[in-house]
Predict the structure.
Amino acid sequence: MDEQALHSNQQAFITDGSISNNTKFESNNDKSQLSSENQIFLDEVLEGLNKPQKSLPCKYFYDEKGSQLFEDICELDEYYVTRTELALLEDIKKELAEMIGSRSTIIEPGAGAGIKIQTLLNALDSPELYVPMDISEDFLFYSAQIIQDKFPHIDILPIQGDFTQPVKWLGKNDSENKVVFFPGSTIGNFDKKSATDFLINLGDMIGENGSIIIGVDLIKDTNILENAYNDDSGKTEAFNKNLLARINQQLDGNFDLSQFKHEAIFNHQEERIEMHLISQQEQSVEINSEKFDFSKHETIHTENSHKYSVDSFLALAADANLKSKKIWTDEQQLFSIHYLVQS
Ligand code: TRP
């Protein structure tokens, strides 16, 4: 195989329950016409909307449009997360490279546009393989090709799938130098129990001698936090509402997007930003022929972004049998990067 081509036909991982974003709902009322991916999407949507506090599963934000909107969010003035983490990564990349050592395999769940990984790959001593994983197929392969062009000597193996599902490494043995790179404080989008389970999974993935480099957003002034998720340009609102647009398109829904308003609030008790869509009037919505009633100001809870202190994150890692080898934070204590290994 051409060394510079993506090794997309290689099978080193399997993921269970992968979801493809490009299957459209094609008929009006016939439930049997839903593709199996959309059937799972529908089941999860109906389950969430039937709860007393209506909710929607956040992984469905990321179709091609949602992934693009998210990249736009990362560049907003209000959204300090991305630039703070990137600057911190720049500062510590040499140290990271030394700790990781040579001939590593880097696995990145939820890789997205793959900007941060380039900082790391540039610093590393002859990395061997880069495995980006993402739910958005088009986005994944597009970014993987860009990285392959920039790093022709590294093998790249993109995996399309839902990275929250268990992933089994079918590749080489445990002595490999495996590193999971999980930036962006995506760990904050899991509730505490799922975050622990997910970290346990990552621990299995890296084996005895591997490591996990994980970016974690820190608890800070409530105004800074809330502004980051309520930007003036309305990108976060568009991102949040894209979920409703997808339900309309793929699951034969009839949400009127203009009748829902985006709001993000910091829940002090749970130490998390919560994103909601607030019904602007009493209304009902049909999805695949099932009807849902909304009272005025009733909300759909669409996502959580948990914030940690250094100590509360260390406690979470410890629950997953992981310990910290080193922690870095920026000067303003906005963001942290942890280097975790098996304890
Ligand atoms: N994990 C990041 C965070 O919680 C990115 C993110 C996920 C995000 N969903 C989002 C950012 C919605 C803004 C809006 O900040």
User: Anything to note?
Assistant: The chain has two domains: 35-73+224-306, 77-220+308-342. Residues 73, 81, 184-186, 188-189, 229, 236, 239, 303, 305 surround tryptophan (CB under 6 Å). The radius of gyration is 20 Å. The first strand starts at residue 13 and ends at 15.
